[in-house]
## 1
Amino acid sequence: KSEYFEKGIHKMGKIFYIMGKSATGKDTIYEELLEHRGLGLRPLIMYTTRPIRANEMDGVQYHFTDVEGLRQMQSEGRVIELRSYNTVHGIWYYFTADGDDIDFEKQSCLALGTLESYQKVRAYYGGEHVLPIYIEVADAERLERSIKREKKQEHPNFSEVCRRYLADEEDFAEEKIVQAGISRRFSNDGPREECMEAVAAYIRELL
């Protein structure tokens, strides 16, 4: 576990973990919360072995490493959760690791991920330190948003929209949400600003 647990330090910042199905607006809310000056949250940045792109910076979008770096962190017990994707360029890994870039004694963080990754991060750092923020939108509205967004793409892929929709139904099944201990939810059916402010107020209560 984290070095703070090993040292017996109990006072620790929190990780606010944002989750939700596709087209719930969670990515935008995540970005706006990071820019919210009154909260002072720092992003919990994931690692990846895929090549860095021209418009990216190491430590901003991701921490970029290679398979050897991943294996080294695994041997040190620092990898919290790991996912792999087969691409035309080979297997790319995305993972959350216990890094040195965040001082949990002084600062709280904001993370964005899946229900499964949230559970693994929570198991690693402890439930009192990792708090879920579940964003939801009515299914009909969510599907309409997905289709509208896909229409704007140069080459729309509506089969992928359907795949994501069905995958979300399984990944965020009601029983899984309950098992993860998520009881409070934030609706983003109306104006996004209202949802964002509700989440910000919730975070302020717990900081």
## 2
Amino acid sequence: MNVRFGIIGLGGISHRFAKVLKTAKDVELTAVASREQSRSEEFARQFGAKKAFDSYLKVIEDPEVDIIYDGLTHNFHYEMTKLCLEHHKAVLCEKPFVTTRRDAEELVQLARANQTLLMEAMWTRCIPAYQKAREWVQTGRIGEVKLITAHFNYHTEYRPESRLFDPKLAGGSLFDVGVYPIEFTTGILGEAPVSVRGEAQLAPSGVDAAAAIAMRFANGALASLSCGFNVETPRTAVIYGTAGSIIVDECVGPQKCELFDLHGHRRERFFKPAADGFIYQIQHVAELFRSGKTESDLIPLQDTIDCAGIFDELRGQWGIK
């Protein structure tokens, strides 16, 4: 069966999603919505959607839509995802899912009560290279994991009106890019940290422009992570164990991972390129819907809740309300 998608919020990330959706099998784009009818109609023409609306609710209520992709800015994720779930409509919500643990717990509880599919669009976890690295860890190929390093930083000029720096739009590097190294790490280890510490550089608008994060896990592993808008850094992630290490080419959208022994000799290499890694999350969420499942095994809802809890802890340390 074809799984029918609706998209609410037609910004850059939704353009990317719709472009990749056109290349996926057994799915279709049924309806799209923004606050401007002309914009919705142009988006629909560009990506082949059957319907275009100037109301998000019209997409949510459309009986011909199976899954809503929520591509709105971070500040609207809670409100619109809740509206979808109240209408028993499956949701793939762009990251970060929400900005507080309380909101995450409420939405997960609602999804479970209504037996409705809910998934955070942490697409990196659906990618084969990430899955291979996780498999190597789980099967003990590098012994016990002791340290993970991962970074996602890029340089952009400060513009207070940008969504990246506007606190009213839930701006900040933690929400925009920090979520990736955090959920990379918790996914590899399969648990939430027991301790989180961080230091941040704040922008004039009051949001975090950059951050360095340290996490400790119950199994003894440590993580050293960073995110930010002020410098360009490699996005390589390294997983160090007692019997070797794994280098993943990127903590966001990896295509390659390599397994090394303690002496630095490469023992195995995995490489699977894709034109755009969004294809894997589209295929995954569509298959979940076809199978009648309400939760992803790759991106469990508890992981999404735990990540929001990490946001709470770090922002509290930084004095960000």
